[in-house]
Amino acid sequence: xxxxxxxxxxxxxxxxxxxxxxxxxxxxxxxxxxxxxxxxxxxxxxxxxxxxxxxxxxxxxxxxxxxxxxxxxxxxxxxxxxxxxxxxxxxxxxxxxxxxxxxxxxxxxxxxxxxxxxxxxxxxxxxxxxxxxxxxxxxxxxxxxxxxxxxxxxxxxxxxxxxxxxxxxxxxxxxxxxxxxxxxxxxxxxxxxxxxxxxxxxxxxxxxxxxxxxxxxxxxxxxxxxxxxxxxxxxxxxxxxxxxxxxxxxxxxxxxxxxxxxxxxxxxxxxxxxxxxxxxxxxxxxxxxxxxxxxxxxxxxxxxxxxxxxxxxxxxxxxxxxxxxxxxxxxxxxxxxxxxxxxxxxxxxxxxxxxxxxxxxxxxxxxxxxxxxxxxxxxxxxxxxxxxxxxxxxxxxxxxxxxxxxxxxxxxxxxxxxxxxxxx
Amino acid sequence: xxxxxxxxxxxxxxxxxxxxxxxxxxxxxxxxxxxxxxxxxxxxxxxxxxxxxxxxxxxxxxxxxxxxxxxxxxxxxxxxxxxxxxxxxxxxxxxxxxxxxxxxxxxxxxxxxxxxxxxxxxxxxxxxxxxxxxxxxxxxxxxxxxxxxxxxxxxxxxxxxxxxxxxxxxxxxxxxxxxxxxxxxxxxxxxxxxxxxxxxxxxxxxxxxxxxxxxxxxxxxxxxxxxxxxxxxxxxxxxxxxxxxxxxxxxxxxxxxxxxxxxxxxxxxxxxxxxxxxxxxxxxxxxxxxxxxxxxxxxxxxxxxxxxxxxxxxxxxxxxxxxxxxxxxxxxxxxxxxxxxxxxxxxxxxxxxxxxxxxxxxxxxxxxxxxxxxxxxxxxxxxxxxxxxxxxxxxxxxxxxxxxxxxxxxxxxxxxxxxxxxxxxxxxxxxxxxxxxxxxxxxxxxxxxxxxxxxxxxxxxxxxxxxxxxxxxxxxxxxxxxxxxxxxxxxxxxxxxxxxxxxxxxxxxxxxxxxxxxxxxxxxxxxxxxxxxxxxxxxxxxxxxxxxxxx
Lengths: 424, 551
Hints:
heterodimer; A: alpha/beta; Spore Coat Polysaccharide Biosynthesis Protein SpsA, Chain A; 2 domains; eight-stranded mixed β-sheet; B: Oligo-1,6-glucosidase, domain 2; Immunoglobulin-like; eight-stranded parallel beta barrel; 16 helices; globular
């Protein structure tokens, strides 16, 4: 019965007062007082500038902030639209806030946003991070317009990233999704997404919300893949650089790999029928002018990565033995033995490693959580190699390499299928 | 002879409680079958207006004129255009109106004259003519460049070349309407004589046309100048000295903060139109959001206690969109004037009913707003029966067609041949006179006309609407526009649903806890107000007026 009443009476009362809307903007928060004001201003100006006639509402599920974040969300108002090159909005900017109990995970926040979009009959629902430093009003336009005007169902962002930023996405998630689902989604785990009302309703009706341990990355990946398999029209929108507030908690690499890769592998299992016989990939339409801009460099401690990789490859040998083929394991150990200056984790070896982990995950050769943890040092080795290889490379050269890597993921897909379908 | 009903009451603040009715003599009733309405006809229809509940009749210009701007191009300030009868007819009309306790307000169009006015004809004869300085002349058309052009659809400049005296003359409106020179004391004195003349004849007050433009100064936009206020103060003082109770209504299509100056310290105008509120009422209903109305009323400064706003939904001009932002204007055009023929200058030339798609619920809601928001309401003739328009008649003629009295010959307006009518009747199947007319609506207790009489009666049952304070409530549901009006111990709660669908609304009425809302149209009691939010369910475009009483 609790499942039927996950929306509080107060939240429902607030929704009742809002009535039907065109656009829902979801802004999940937790102690974001330092940055949320800027995000709110960008949202209000973005709506006034690009969607002045649409009925819009901000949905703010808060995880129990103690720094006054919800109060700030309720009260932040743009005073002088003219100076921000926007006209004063025609309509009331409505806000609905609700606090969900700590410990319920981010799933409840997302579910709340999607339920609101569903109940209010929104045509478009977008989500934004509360700790964005680099957000501009144009982000609202970029995420809403493809849905509102071009009838897309899912808008994934494209950020302008430093060459060493987002390496898990670049080396695992993006190419693996591209090779399996056949779609080129550069940011499959982003918070900044746009959904059509149709897709939001579909997601809100899914059973996944019962899981309380699903991570942010996991949920977002799940939404992305569900859009891909559900015959929804998917596109991407260029947002520019993404800079988070200084106080934003950086995720532990082990947890991130476990959550993001784990969720993607779970999705691959669930959508096996969709991707198994698919080959190649289709480009995904991109909206927005992709301007160049200098981005903040990402500093990576190569020595520590190498050390972790080498230690992991040695200490986890017995675990890796049950996950990887002997050839792959042997090649990894050879890589681990390389001198720092010659260190390279080759693309083909990396692709096979990922595919063998995926197949072993599918066959549950060992505890799945242990399996994912075993991937972490190998991933760190791959990152070290990537950084060494591209230390002096320009962004374009790095892009070319990533494109080549993605193509190798596609070309070697049969290797994944073979391992996935092999009887163990 | 005045009977027992005698003259209107002598409350000097009568205009604060009044319901105004704007009408053009030529459009109301034709008594002599020449196809043009006249004063005798208007007099015959005074019972209709009295029954409607109107207190004050505002007459559009009826003076001798070449009628190139519907009479706003006056050629003689002290007579009646022969089309509309004689000065004697007007006097009878005034007496009959007063006998019914109604007042009459006429137009004072003195920013400019017609170019056919003898003053201008004299002035243009030579540069040294004694009347020359009654107008504004220049050797170049470079002066006052910062003044905007008002009739953007027809005029390219505020200067026009006079080929006779070979100089440019200044005109803020049409080029055939030269502006009078208010820097000339003779002009001001002449205006005073005109006012005195009509007041002595029995006219109760004046609607002063184009007030902001009386004076020009280099380096300014030639609007709202301090010198203009000095002239108004001067004329008001002379009026008060001569006649005691007076009434001056300002036509100043400006932002409320700028219009505020025209009230002075209660020593300029008694009343001024609130132009920016009007489009925002339409905007709020289409947006289904109270924001435009609340925003503009928040930006409306307090006015002296003896002064009043004049509020309206429609009038004889286009629905002006001068006092809105570009985005708001685009929105209004898209929502209310998709047919480009409906657009004129910076506005929309449509009547109330066509603007709201002939939706009775919206017509009622708009009138509920008109009659309950702060100010004195002004009803445009024909809107009380939901008359339509004809946007293809040119200029603003489409909203100035003959009054539709019945479904018979010429809508009962005139016995002339239909071809002689000053403008063709509205005759389409939706708004045509066969369908929309006074007579048929008098036969139905549920007609729009019957409803208009009722709501006017309810408004007049209390002074709270005309004189009371306003406090907006802020229910979470922004489709609800709710406010409390209070005056001398009387409290009225008004709740309007701006939306096309049903909505619940919860009102924070704790300040009035213990009081009982009594619905003012039916007289029914609603549950007593307590500590909890007061819930009301509103149907599409529904409105409630509650008198709050401590029982």
